[in-house]
Amino acid sequence: MNAELYLSDLESKPEALTALAGRLRAEDPFAGLPAGIDRVLFLGMGSSRYGAGVAALRLRAAGVFAHAEYSSAAASLPPAEGTLVVPISATGSSRETLDAVVAYAGGQARLAAFTNSPGSPLAAAADLVVDLHAGEERGGVACRTFQHTLALLLALESRLTGRDRDLPALLERAAQASADLLERRDEWLPLTMELLDGPHGVYTIAPAERLSSAEQSALMFREGPRRPADACESGDWSHVDVYLTKTLDYRALLFPGSRYDGQAMDWVRERGSTVIAVGGEVKDAAAAIRYVHDDDPDVALLTETLVAELVAAYWWSAQ
Ligand SMILES: O=P(O)(O)OC[C@H]1O[C@](O)(CO)[C@@H](O)[C@@H]1O
Predict the structure, then answer these.
(1) Residue 248 burial by Cβ neighbours in a 10 Å radius (0-12, 13-18, 19+)
(2) Whole-structure pTM value
């Protein structure tokens, strides 16, 4: 893994996402999907599972049975007709995900693999391969593949729910939002790095609908600069992370949008913790990082991890 190459992977996010938008205008990655799907099982590890958790929640809210499982679970839904199994693996070679698909390959369920490596063993085991088209991540850290996984999960959602939306236009707005954060980083990054640089690690908080943002952000702080970091859901925060604020110098990135943000911020105020809001103004936050189109929750879902990814990249390269 390499910090400088990771930073250049981040810098190419807008270009790669714009190119994906163009592809989705020209071709339907799910053209080969069979009809009659009535339940969806996502499988993945690390960042490849984070996006799946959000995708499954969104599908359930639209009335489609969907679940995201750790590939490493000993067993999950039994194979059955009408089940679409979606293993997600950027490399297409994570041992746990390859093992998990064995229970489904060649059976009644259909397998649609999301991967950035169409020549991988995972792709070979699938009925349908959905190429992430994220390009090579030369830094060795999943970042563009995370963003493209979310984009293609939104495409799958449109396909399964029949929701008529202009997904390429959404991806273009997310590319603009990413470019805006990158271009204006001198305005927000130094203060953010300073405020998050505490003795007890970094915490990340997001609503259930965007929990992947908190999870991926915490992973980036661990994987690059190897700092202690953990993610928490915004409502759950008052039942979980609140216990850290009394004894630790608690410093967090908050991705706002939960109806329980205010409840958490009451504790933050009382305990003198440090919270930085990303993509919106939050009362008593130490700072707010804004970017174009940040009022659209789907743009936020696709974009907001870039804040943590850039902090992680600069901390890492300073080591
Ligand atoms: O998507 P893959 O290739 O299965 O990798 C799963 C996870 O493992 C990692 O490669 C780290 O080991 C992460 O980047 C990723 O989140």
Answers:
(1) middle
(2) 0.97
Q: Cα(107)–Cα(96) distance, rounded to whole angstroms?
A: 19
Q: Is 232 in the pocket of ligand 1 (CB under 6 A)?
A: no
Give the torsion sign (CA, 7, 223, 59, 61). negative
Angle between helices 211-223 and 305-317 (to 10 degrees): 10
Whose CA is closest to atom 4 on ligand 1? 89
Rounded to two decimals, the ipTM of the complex is 0.95
pLDDT tens figures, 161-201: 998 899 999 999 999 999 999 999 999 999 999 999 999 99
CB of 217 closer than 8 Å to CB of 204: yes
Answer whether 214's CB lies under 8 Å from 241's CB.
no
| Residue to mutate (ligand 1; options 2, 9, 47, 138; most atoms within 8 A of CB) | 47
Q: How confident is the model at residue 148 (pLDDT cuts 50, 70, 90)?
A: very high
Cβ(160)–Cβ(61) under 8 Å?
A: no
Residues 255, 297: Cα–Cα separation, whole Å: 10
- Token output for 220: 């980036």
Q: Take atom 8 of ligand 1 and give the residue whose Cα is closest.
A: 46
According to DSSP, residue 278 is labeled E
Q: Is 115 in the pocket of ligand 1 (CB under 6 A)?
A: no
Token representation of residue 18: 């714009």
CB 45 near ligand 1, within 6 Å: yes
Closest C-alpha among 228, 200, 214, 226 to residue 278: 214
d(CA 52, CA 58): 10
**Interval 3-61: pLDDT, tens:** 999 999 999 999 999 999 999 999 999 998 988 999 999 999 999 999 999 999 999 99
